Amino acid sequence: MPTVRKEITVAAAPEAVFAIAQDVERFPEVMHDLKKVEVLERDGGRTITRWTSIAEVGPLTKEIAWEEEDVWDATALTCKFKMTKGDMKAYEGVWTFTRDGAVTNVVLDIDYEIEIPLLGALVHKIIRQKMDENCDSLLKALKRLAENKEA
C-alpha cells in the first residue's frame, strides 16, 4: 500500500494547531481540490466525517467521496483516521502535533490505495503526486491558519 509522510513546522503552540486541525469543515476554504467536508457525528474526541474531493488525473476529472472515523486524542495530541466507506480501496493515517521549543512539528502519515481498473504505473505515479500535493496543501493551509496568516 502506498504511503505519504509530510511534515511542517508551525509557529504556534501544539494545542492551538491541534484545535485548528479539528475544524475539518473549514478545510475546503483553504484546499482547492476539496469540495466539501461534513461532520456527520461528533462524540467527544471521535468524529465521523464525509469528504468530497475532485481528483484531476491528466485530462480526467472525477469526484471522489469517502467517510472516515477520526479519533482526536487531546492528551497525546494525535488524530488517527480511517476510511469507513468510500471510493478508495483504503485510506488511513495519523496526525501528530509535537512541541519543539517555541514551534510545533506537525506530521501527517497516510496509507492509501486507489484502485482504478485498466490504468497502469503512469497513472499510479500521477495519483501519488496528487496525494503529495494535497497533503502539502493541507499542511500549508494549517500553518497559515495557525499563524494567523491569510488563508
Kindly describe this structure.
The structure is a single chain. Helix content is 26%, strand content 50%. Helix 1 packs across helix 3. The protein contains 3 helices and 7 strands. It has 151 residues and is an alpha+beta fold. It has a 7-stranded antiparallel beta sheet. The model has no long low-confidence stretch (mean pLDDT 89). The longest helix has 26 residues, at 121-146.
SSE topology:
Blueprint: E1 3-10, H1 14-22, H2 27-30, E2 34-43, E3 46-57, E4 60-73, E5 78-86, E6 90-100, E7 103-113, H3 121-146
Antiparallel strand pairs: 1-7, 2-3, 3-4, 4-5, 5-6, 6-7
Helix pairs in contact: 1-3
* Sheet with most strands: 7 strands, antiparallel
Count of helical regions: 3
Output the strand order for the largest sheet: 1-7-6-5-4-3-2
**Which outline best applies?**
globular
What is the first-to-last residue Cα distance?
32 Å
Strand content range: over 45%
Q: Can you tell me the residue ranges where pLDDT is under 50 for at least 5 consecutive residues?
A: none
Calculate the mean pLDDT score and round it.
89
Number of strands: 7
Percent of residues in helical segments? 25-40%
Cα Rg: 15 Å
User: H/E order of the elements?
Assistant: EHHEEEEEEH
Question: Which structural class do the helices and strands define?
Answer: alpha+beta
